[in-house]
């Protein structure tokens, strides 16, 4: 476990990382949290493929609530064919519901532009690519403090409710609450891994 020095930060013993246990960003958040002595809840819903040792099976009530939140999020995202992924998407709601801050690793997509797979964004606002975009949008819909590390340009952004857009962070953000979501793309790059490490270092370690 990493030594934590005195700093005005959340007590690691009272802090929980809410995540999904998927390969990639979720796993890096999970492993880094454990390294710092932070509790992890990696949520799952009726799947045999979830291998996290910190697995938490969500209830049917949470799942059904998640379906409603996903459908609400999709009114902003405007995507098709999500029903076959609903088990994964709806469980993301619990990560958002339990958290006050959300930290996501992914790619920000501009309105009307193509994502990496060549699909156009039909949203009026900036969104985040892939399944991570649903968790981010649910966070925005529920007035959470949302941060996204954009792997495309190696920068942290924070959602502004004033401008309804992602605004560049002038410095690395910090975890300021006892319950946060650590989520993101399965295709995490080296700069994405480094961003997670720096987030924790910037929060918990006095330079």
Give a quick set of tags describing it.
8-stranded mixed sheet; 32% helix; 207 residues; 10 strands; two-stranded antiparallel sheet; alpha/beta
List the helices and strands and how they pair.
Blueprint: E1 16-19, H1 25-35, E2 39-44, E3 55-57, H2 60-77, H3 86-97, E4 101-106, E5 108-109, E6 127-128, H4 132-141, E7 145-150, E8 155-160, E9 165-168, E10 179-184, H5 190-204
Parallel strand pairs: 1-2, 1-10, 2-3, 4-7, 4-10
Antiparallel strand pairs: 5-6, 7-8, 8-9
Helix pairs in contact: 1-5, 2-3, 2-4, 3-4
What helical percentage do the residues reach?
25-40%
How large is the count of helical segments?
Answer: 5
Distance between the termini: 18 Å
Q: What composes the largest sheet?
A: 8 strands, mixed
Structural class: alpha/beta
- The radius of gyration computed from the alpha-carbon positions, rounded to a whole number of angstroms, is 16 Å
Mean pLDDT: 91
> Strand fraction band?
15-25%
H-E string? EHEEHHEEEHEEEEH
Strand order of the largest sheet: 3-2-1-10-4-7-8-9
Number of DSSP strands?
10
Low-confidence stretches: 1-7
Shape: globular
